[in-house]
Each structure stands twice: as C-alpha cells, then as structure tokens.
Specification:
This protein has strands at residues 35-46, 52-60, 66-68, 72-75, 99-108, 114-127, 130-142, 144-145, 149-160, 164-166, 169-180, 191-200, 206-218, 222-227. By secondary structure, the chain is mainly β. The strands form two sheets. Strands 2, 3, 4, 5, 6, 7, 10 and 14 form an eight-stranded antiparallel beta sheet that branches. A six-stranded antiparallel beta sheet has the order 1-13-12-11-9-8, with no helix packed on it. It is globular and about 55 Å long.
C-alpha cells in the first residue's frame, strides 16, 4: 500500500461527551486513494465579541490537502458552536465579576460523527492591569462503539504558566486518543492527538491556538475548532 504524508498548516487571521455509544465512525482503513498519513493541522483564533462564538472548519480534501472553511461568528453556545451539546454541558465556574472563555478542538468523520474532542473552560478576574486569579478546566470526549470498542483516551495533561497575580496566563491542554474497533481490530491504524492553548489577558481578551495530529485519516474528515 502506498502511503502519503501530509504536514499542513492552516492559519486564521482575525476573529475561528462520552459520545453517543452506538454511533459508528467511518474509520475503516481506506484505500491508498483515500488515505492520508501523518497529517498535522494548526491554527489560531482570537476571542470573539461578547455573546458570540467564532468557529472554523477544515476538511481533509483530495491529495490530503486541507480545505479551509471561512471564519464564522455565531451566537455563543448555539448553532455550530454548540458542538452537539458539548459546550452546553461544560461546567459554569465563572467567579463573580470574572470572565469565562471556552474552546473546542474536535475531529469529525465524513459522516459528521464526532470521533474525538478536547474542550477547555477558563475563568479569570483582573484588577489594576493584572490577572488576579485564573483557572482552566479541560474535558475530553470520544466516540464509542458496541461491544466495548471504538475510540479511547490514551493520555491527557494540562498545565498553566501562572494562576495568581499574572501579567497574562497561558494554559496548554493535550489529549491523545487511540482507536480499536469494528473498522480496525489491530488498534494500530488510527490515533488523534489534540493540543489546545489558551492565552488570557487582563483586559478580558483571550486567544486560542489549536493543533491536531492524525496518524491516518480518510479524505473527508473534518477538523472543527472555535472559542467563545
């Protein structure tokens, strides 16, 4: 089997649960004409206006090249930003007079089934041009199949560079997922690794940077990312 390698960078300028237990992701080892190996996608989004979310989709197109969708603004926690309920279920931990900022970093198959996802919820308060306190929670979601098969969370971690009396706060969250199930019984073909970085500023603005590394993909898989 001929394998192709794609390492692609998608940059955006301007304003980008356990899943359903019976849905089956379209993850069968594809033919060489459908297969992409070693795909990496990356991009950044600044915070949208209050009450809005900024979202963007990237599709794995022909010849393993990314097809970048437009950056879109939608009402917060609705429409595309709702991510099938993932954000609606995110913990509401904003302190009084504080700011809350959420991000999502997801891979969908070509049948619009969410396979893996990494989500963050950040809260912070500011005074006198500095961040007084900050906290970020990370959540992970993945699609399972019948008979205890499908995607699994292999590892995850999160680290903050500062949480009290900070000029800025940057949080890095990572999640590595593996697949072993109906479409690949070996567990050696698919693996999705998500990275999300959130930078919080004392003026209540924030930015998101996202990466995803895919061991193999189908042409037609979709990367969805956004923040609000």
């Amino acid at each position: 089997m001929n394998k192709r390698f794609a390492s692609v960078v998608v940059a955006s300028a301007g304003l980008l649960s356990l899943m359903s237990g019976t849905a089956l992701a379209d993850t069968a080892p594809p033919s060489p004409e459908q297969s992409c190996e070693g795909v990496k996608l990356t991009g950044a989004l600044p915070a949208p206006p209050a009450g809005m979310a900024v979202v963007q989709d990237v599709t794995i197109g022909k010849d393993c090249k990314p097809v970048t969708g437009p950056v879109q603004y939608v009402p917060a926690s609705s429409g595309k930003a709702a991510a099938k309920g993932a954000l609606a279920a995110a913990p509401q931990t904003a302190a009084a007079a504080g700011r809350q900022f959420r991000s999502w970093n997801e891979m969908f198959d070509c049948c619009n089934i969410r396979m893996t996802g990494l989500y963050t919820t950040s809260t912070w308060s500011s005074a006198d041009g500095r961040i007084t306190t900050a906290a970020t929670e990370a959540r992970h979601e993945w699609n399972r199949e019948p008979w205890d098969a499908g995607w699994s969370l292999k590892s995850s971690d999160k680290k903050d560079d500062c949480t009290n009396d900070c000029a800025t706060v940057t949080t890095q969250a990572n999640a590595e997922f593996t697949y072993k199930g109906i479409f690949d019984v070996t567990g050696k073909w698919y693996a999705n690794t998500h990275h999300s970085n959130v930078k919080l500023n004392p003026d209540s603005t924030a930015t998101c940077t996202f990466d995803v590394e895919l061991r193999h993909t189908f042409i037609g898989w979709n990367w969805r990312r956004g923040c609000e």
